[in-house]
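re: ur msg from earlier - yeah i can do the zinc ion complex, just paste it... oh wait u already did. ok heres what im feeding in:
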Amino acid sequence: MTSKPPKKILLIFAHPDDETSSCGGTISKYSKLGSEIFVCTATNGNKGDLGTGDLVLKREELGTFRENEEKAVLKFLGAKDVIQLGYDDQGLELLDVPILENQFFDILMDIKPNIVITFGERGFSGHTDHIQAHVNAKNAFGKYVKFSPESKLLYTAMPRFFAEFRNMDLSEDEKSPSIAINISSTWENKVKALRMYKSQNDAQEIAKMFEEMYSSDNFDNFGESKEIIIGLFNSLKKFGYTNNPTEYFHQAYPKLKNYSDIVLSSNF
Ligand SMILES: [Zn+2]
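and the outut:
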């Protein structure tokens, strides 16, 4: 790595596990590089799955259980602190405006991060809590940046050809990565961390997907489309795309021009 790692990175997401699904390798990598990583999670995820494998939880204990899972996961990944706001799952759009934005703003002013990472406009999955996390984090950042003009706002993203291959409903920004963090050295930590979210089936599925993709020839995962995907990677090599395990981000502030042809940055 040529540039110095950012001093402080704040991730703002909706549910315990969002941060690991989208940024687990990056959290582990940058905490090893010396960045202080903070995570703010708006809900306690109390409407999620009630366990996987032999774990069976009661609905009323799920919120606390998931918050504890998240604390253990983030400790494992090397994050410095997690701020859990404890709202009900699927409840963020019911909050009076601008309660959440003000809370995010206070946290931004308290931590003073150099990099803020959150969901983009479609929340990666269209989940209403994800979209609310995006809107309120973006608005709070808009106020914060007046006090910290050097700071950057990033959205989780994926390469356009992946999004289209998987028929994902993403905004332009979410399909236009400008940063590709190579997580070859930490993707196994991401898988372990996802496995620690024993209450959640999605986390287990994503862990399995990563294992299948990166334990062997990762292109085999694309089945009949394998040749097409290999061709796409080769044609996009000059833009910085590789088949390494990677987490992608779109820089939303400062805004980028002509990012359709952008060469990916390999660090923040
Ligand atoms: Zn979520």
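cool cool. The helical segments are 18-33, 59-77, 99-111, 128-144, 160-165, 187-196, 201-215, 226-235. ping me if u need the other ligands too
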